[in-house]
Amino acid sequence: MRRAAPVLLLLLAALPAAAQDRPVFTPTRDVAVTYRVTAGQGAGHSLRMAWLVAERKLRVDAEGAPGWSVIDQRAQRMLVVMEQQRAVLEVPANTGPGGLSLPTEPPAGARFTKGAAATVAGLRCTTWHYEDGDKKGETCLTADGVMLRSSGGQGSRSGAVEATTVAYGPQDPARFRPPAGFRSMQVPPGLGFPGAPPAPR
Question: Which of 64, 66, 61 is nearest to 83 (CA)?
Fold first, then answer.
């Protein structure tokens, strides 16, 4: 996932967290969203994201990537499914310097302010501006937690995405599980995961 996926993960990881007035930043019902990457790595490519709310899982399919990934919030890990190699790479959260910080765990120290309402992909959303150290940006979220637009990040890791289609409806749990017969691989502790965003500080 070396094109659009790292940028999207970074944008999600930068979403605001604890505050007295904060948005819902994960969907509260099953939904599938197609995004266009408008800046950063993978600009011009598309991303497909689907949430299986009951199992707290997010699937990411990036155009041009050799496979797909599933972020499992409950198990605190990401599974990278490499179809050509018929392998599944398991990446636990916070595997050390350069390791994975799950986008479902935004930085607790982020400061943010509520902005104006907007319409993206035919849906209303509220813009939230955030700042976390030298990471800045904004995201537009629906009332039920669907990200429709997001931009920002840090230096060369900055990027932007915008939803083009949003489809609510039950997701097939089988699409969020590794294919049968694929060999399992694990990232050794402390080695991190190439292309993953650094853990928020």
Answer: 66
